[in-house]
Amino acid sequence: MCALTTDPEPPPAALLPGRPTPLLLRPLAWLMLQALLLLLGLGSVLGNLLAMPLYPLLPRQRGLRMGRAGIARGYRFFWRVAAASGMLRLDAEVLDSLRDEPGLIIVANHPSLLDALMLVARLPRAACIMKASLMRNPLLGPGARLARYIRNDSTFGMVRCAVADLRAGGQLLMFPEGTRTTQDPVNPFHASFTLIARRARAPIQVVFIDTLSPYLGKGWPLWRLPPLPIHFAVRLGRRFAPPQDHEAACAEIQAYVAAGLRQPRPQA
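Above: the chain's sequence. Below: its structure in token form.
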């Protein structure tokens, strides 16, 4: 096993806690936050409309590279606008050291709906696992199909496609909890990521997403204004060698991630 850090580092001391917005400013803050979500939605629709005619025209590898790079650039633009607004801040520069590394599985905890956007923005080689229904959606699926993201309609098909993508030099981004975190410190992990790692002979890089905000966590409604600003920070954890026993490796990595998340889940 090769480790970037021998033990989990604590969450950064500079992680910003949000503060309740003064009553008179709440309508403006709410409108600004909803405008950011609208920008994200409109950008997604535009990207998918552009991807729609490209998917049948471009060769697979060219479409894959263009699709993944385009999604990454779109998300990076969103985070720049969010930071300029003062509403949302993301510190994820540590991921830049991983962006050009082929055949790597990146796993992270899953505190909010924005997690994939945070990581993909810095990882233009990465494929995500997506629901098959979203991949078939005419407004949400074309960009993911162009990028050759991986459908989860069957475990066998998902594992086979993920292994092939990794062997071809791609990266795979996974959230082993399967859904946003509801238990302290993490939900039980599903072992599919270690099974893929074993079959692809791919190392597993752990990434921690830290936040003191409950925004867009499980059960958080889109219309509710959280304490502001909303701050996310990403840090690198250990890198695990391709496992021989994928179930034992899953338990080991879950314990490692749980130990690395040393603050309780944020409360509203």
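Residues 26-57 form the longest helix (32 residues).
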